[in-house]
Write a structure and sequence with these properties.
Blueprint lengths: L1 H18 L15 H17 L5 E6 L4 E6 L6 H15 L4 H9 L18 E6 L2 E9 L3 H17 L1
Antiparallel strand pairs: 1-2, 1-4, 3-4
Helix pairs in contact: 2-5
């Protein structure tokens, strides 16, 4: 009985000391993509697309690949909705532009990349990085893959300059 009481007291002291540690020793500060920022990214993408007379879909996802904001310019084919979302998801899940996958498949013939789950090998998806932290991604679809890439880059560049 005495050993049980000593063990209980020791366990209580361990728990108290663990939970009394400063919170900053346990948690990291993390940047997050806000809805307002997602709308600004989409606005910049829309402006670039309209400047070039391209109809496109803009998808913005958070750092977990969850859709935050979607915009479809009038008369854009509806098939581009899912493609834009998948481009954004690929960019954040793999922390690289989707053009990297396109280049590997087309230029290097690495068709095995096509079997990666959640990887789309078409230009137009870019991760959004702030202070070295991946906070989300943008996916553009509706034009040629080159055009999609131009619009995605213009939006991320404008966002990064702010």
């Amino acid at each position: 009985m005495k050993k049980f009481m000593i063990a209980s007291v020791l366990m209580a002291l361990v728990c108290i000391s663990f939970f009394s540690m400063p919170a900053n020793a346990q948690l990291a500060t993390k940047k997050v993509l806000t809805l307002d920022a997602a709308k600004k990214l989409a606005s910049a993408a829309e402006a670039e697309a309209l400047k070039n007379k391209w109809t496109m879909v803009v998808a913005i996802v958070d750092d977990g690949g969850n859709l935050m904001y979607l915009e479809k310019i009038d008369n854009t084919q509806i098939g581009s909705i899912e493609v834009a979302i998948q481009k954004a998801k690929t960019a954040i899940l793999f922390k690289r532009p989707t053009k990297v996958f396109e280049d590997k498949v087309i230029k290097e013939g690495r068709t095995a990349i096509l079997s990666l789950p959640n990887a789309i090998a078409i230009e137009g998806g870019l991760p959004i990085v702030v202070d070295g932290q991946y906070i989300g991604a943008i996916g553009i679809s509706g034009g040629s893959s080159d055009q999609d890439g131009v619009v995605a880059k213009a939006a991320v560049d404008k966002f990064s300059a702010q």
